[in-house]
Design goal:
The chain contains one helix and 39 strands. By secondary structure, the chain is mostly beta strands. The longest helix has 4 residues.
Length: 458
Amino acid sequence: MKLRTVFAPLVMSFLALSPLISCQATASEPHSNSRGFAPVKELDSSDLLAVAMDESSLFLVGDDGMLTVVSYQEDTPVVVSTTAFTNQPEQVVLDQGILAAALGEFGVELMDVSDPGAPLSIATISSVDGYPEFEGDGVGFGSNGELLVASGDNVHLFDITTPSAISILGTYTGERTARDLSVEDNQLAIGNRGFGFELVDVTNPSTPQHQAAWGERADQVTLVGTLAFTAAEEFETAVLRVIDVNPELEDPSELGSHDTYAGYDGEFTIPELVVNSEGTVAAFPFMWEHGEGSINYGIFVYDTSTPASTDEVAQLTLPSEPTDAALAGQIMAVTVGMQVVLYDLTDPSNPLELPGISTSVDDPTDEVALPTTPRIESVYPNPFNARTRVVFSLPASQQVRLAVYDMLGRERLLLADRVFEGGSHNVTLNTDQLGSGTYVFRLQTSQFQSTKKLVLIK
């Protein structure tokens, strides 16, 4: 039985502010790989955490803080430029040649990527007067090119027409932490990562107005026309929903859904949801942990052309854990470790893996090199609100202690203290017994230690 809760109107406030914002306009030369046309296999220098795309280029973010631009319309995909961000991005979105990167505690960075071969950092937003805890938790673009930044419970709207003089237009404050942002025809959906979503009218950016709220779990939300598409892990099940969010309705109304059961004690992790511009095809990558301990990675593809008959029409296999996804036209890109896979979803029941990518992604002749020292490869998602996955690598078999510490150096969680074989490993960090805050994950051996900062938001 499904339970549905529609929240009562949430407490919110809005502010129309003058340009009280600390911005830094910068310009940077692309690195030496610019116009180098290197093969995609050169992307093995770092794990890929985020992706944005247009009809001809992929914009890939590695865990080394680098932006790599790949032209994927050639017979063989080629790297056309690499450029460093000022800090490590956690998310990127693209609109009309501007790439916005959420930098967490470091705010937001804007890059002009209208020339993919020469990206330029044009501005950073690091603070907003009146909001001392401003961070770049999530980013999006409005219907008229406004920049939207999720920061804690707030969504700030910025005029970025002149990058050297960015001004704030208004701020919306809801009850819950804002994460996913999706805008369609001046209607903003604010995803709360597990707690449904809010709908906000941003026709007048200086006075955003609460419209409605959806209370069922929604890990990801995307607006297309007057429909909202959500993906969620719910009661050991992956659920895609299609919801009518027409502003003329008193409350959002579910039109159709599809459930995939993970098995007893199983669970799904869903890093992103993509929907085509017609709203007829939806897809999301997943990590599927079965109750018996096995793990599968893949993509669910859905036919949503008739919302009431929403159906899973394809399930694709991925080589390892996906971290992000994007869609341009009918082409879907998914980042998987150090690799990118591309699928043509023109026929959603028969997705086509595009030539030139699959051999780079899953070449059995490629040897996996072991690191020279123990290291933490990635923590995703981060920030997170309950569970996150830590991937680490070892050069050889050895005793390893994995633990979480608070900012006073006190050990709060012990995940493992045993011998691991050389190679790549991953562990799931469950923080049910911890409160919101900043923590440190530590990997320690007899001669080495590596740490990563964790941000837990509940």
